[in-house]
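In response to reviewer comment 3 from the previous cycle, which asked for concrete evidence that the modeling workflow produces usable outputs, we include below a single protein chain processed end to end. The sequence was submitted unchanged, and the resulting structure tokens are shown without manual editing.
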Amino acid sequence: MGLLLTFFGFFMAILANMTGIEGGMIFVPLFILLFGLSPQEAAGVSMATMVFGLGAGSLAYARQGRIDGRLGLALLVVSLPGTILGALLTPHLSARALELLLGLLLVPLGFRIILRREPDKAGPAGQKSSEGWRRVWRDRGGTEFRYVVRRLPLGLLIYLFVGLVAGLLGIGGGAIKVPTLILLLGLPPHIAVATSVFTMAWTALAGGLAHGAIGHVLPIYVLYLVPGVLLGSQVGARLARRVPAATLMKLLGGMVVLIGLTILAKASGLWD
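The workflow returned the following structure tokens.
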């Protein structure tokens, strides 16, 4: 079982760090089906493990110079309180109804990302407007990024909502966060992925601590998963740097569709 878990973590971390989307909504059901964990234990193990994977991925992206740190901190200010509020509201709201709504949102959103044309125009398109937060810098490899962060107040409101959903469902919310950064705020795909990984690392830390305090984290599982996650996070960050933006967008869209279908399956009771 140990080797299988290590490989499992390796694959999960590659996907999470390449797309900026946490693997929890895909892998939590597999933890339940393949390893017989309870839903609470599966969520706790996933959160605790992704602290290491997303944290290591954040360091890799920081070394590449592709994280928009100022924007990421602004998004964290609203998303973390939303996550805490969502956790507090869990006993009072129907998680299944929310999962159904989220799944129905993500599937068409994923196809919207896949079918989006000229993804590299996301940054320059924003520059046609005089309104917004202009961002210009070069990463460690010499690539220059120029874009305008548009509609930031709306983006912050969405991140507050995503944090709320994350707290209610025990997910990281990356399937909504990355499309918000690209389609709404106007970030280039590579910057959006790196910034999403950065914000979710902190969200995973908060969630992992909360689950650990409740007793939902199984240390033996985390011990086997972490080596694969640490390696996979570095591989994922390096692959994302080399993958063209158009390919990265299609991979991202495919992950969003898959996550949406997984959530719909969970809402229908297939994971119960």
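The first strand starts at residue 133 and ends at 138. We consider this sufficient to address the reviewer's concern, and the full set will be provided in the supplementary archive.
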